[in-house]
Amino acid sequence: MGEELSLPAVRDALVREEDSIVFALIERARLPRNAPAYEDPAAAAGRSLAEFFVREAEVLHAKAGHYQKPEDVPFFPRDLPPPMFPTKSYPKVLHPFASSVSVNDAIWKMYFNELIPLFTVDGDDGNYAETAALDFACLKAMSRRIHIGKYVAEVKFKDAPQDYSPLIRAKDTKALMNLLTFKAVEEKVKKRVEKKARIFGQNITLEEDSAGKQEGNAGDSECKIDPEVLSKLYDHWVMPLTKDVEVEYLLRRLD
Amino acid sequence: MGEELSLPAVRDALVREEDSIVFALIERARLPRNAPAYEDPAAAAGRSLAEFFVREAEVLHAKAGHYQKPEDVPFFPRDLPPPMFPTKSYPKVLHPFASSVSVNDAIWKMYFNELIPLFTVDGDDGNYAETAALDFACLKAMSRRIHIGKYVAEVKFKDAPQDYSPLIRAKDTKALMNLLTFKAVEEKVKKRVEKKARIFGQNITLEEDSAGKQEGNAGDSECKIDPEVLSKLYDHWVMPLTKDVEVEYLLRRLD
């Protein structure tokens, strides 16, 4: 997120992040499940290749100066090294507590246990390192989208502190969740990510063009990822987890 | 590349790799130039953040078992560690010399000196770590596409050894290059990658759909990356470098 905090700016960030998530999932779907990447070989101190990769990648990203912003949240925050390169300070528009709000444990479990079986084909082509790298990209994009919820919450709070403050003081999680839920908006988001998967996941050929066939109308079976998986991902996990972030942030907003 | 070596299989791999390159460039284009990521700070042993990141990322990828296949070529191959996890052996369909054929130095120079100024906007938003990570993804996708040229060369050689062998023995680089060049195919590839950029780089909204507007027809100025950059990238660099790989491979094919 940039300097100005406004609902349109936050919404733009969320919409742009959808593209990154769709791209990352399409790339991961290129490879089959590759279960050995998720198993614990004796050699690796009880860690799967996927976990090893994410931990080490986060160390590298931290050295490079990542994880300074509240929307960039590591999955393994303990013992991350400090940046080795100069970083630019970002405008502090959120409550200082924002940095410690994280639902990455839930994202991790969801991704490996629920999502991977939904959008990868069963199989093992031996490309385990590539698999882990693509998994990291998916996790990173989803985590970023979900933790932008901190800005959503701040904007909404600033817009109507009189509505939020009593609920925050009463720690009324359920009422806060209701106040943050807009079913009609959520339906639109689901439709849009499904459409993005359909358009970004199609096989582009020059021939279709000359026949005047409209892009994005290829059968879903030809799509590199089932568009309904995107709709489901947002419906069951991305939007609920974003709201969990919003509520968690709001509950300490008055501290 | 998989088990079977056939021209259709190799072509499919090249076409699929186009999507990865377009996705990676669109993602990088999200951030401005961010020149400090390419400058040498005193702290980092004379290395820019971008170089530091790529070197360290390649170490991690090597530990995870990457760089076993002839199309996966590191930019900094010296002193890469061995895999820490079990790897699957891949079918050896190429001449053993294949692994050492690399044009990564040329890709590196082209990317940082020529390409980045073409597709990123001037500016500095401070996201240097993210910049370096996205650069690594672009480099990796382009390098992979270009080094699949080894398989292209092998398939073409196997298909017509009588045409290639005399030229290889005569070390006739120019004649080999001519034999590998199909202008009509190259024009098609350029048009296709441009079309992919136009379709994958558009801003998808639900509204356009209801108005019956055809996807991919938005003005290029609204596109996340100028589609002509993709056409130029392939014309000036990706296809010529792929043919350099093919020639370099063929020149030692009879050793």
What does this structure look like?
The structure is a homodimer of 255-residue chains. Chain A is mainly alpha-helical. The first copy, chain A, has one domain: Chorismate mutase, AroQ class superfamily, eukaryotic (Chorismate Mutase, subunit A). Chain A is 58% helix and 0% strand. The two termini of chain A are 23 Å apart. Chain A is globular and about 55 Å long. The first copy, chain A, contains ten helices and no strands. In chain A, α8 (183-200) packs across α10 (227-251). Chains A and B meet through α1, α2, α4 and α8 of A and α1, α2, α4 and α8 of B.
List keywords for this structure.
globular; 0% strand; Chorismate Mutase, subunit A; 255 residues; homodimer; 10 helices; 58% helix; mainly alpha
Indicate the mean pLDDT of chain A: 93
Specify Rg of chain A, calculated over alpha carbons: 20 Å
The topology string of helices and strands of chain A comes to HHHHHHHHHH
The CATH top-level class label of chain A: Mainly Alpha
Count of beta strands of chain A: 0
- The CATH superfamily of chain A is Chorismate mutase, AroQ class superfamily, eukaryotic
Largest interface chains and counts: A-B, 56 and 56 residues
Percent range for β-strand residues of chain A: under 5%
Summarize it.
Two copies of one chain form a homodimer. With about 260 residues, chain A is mainly α.
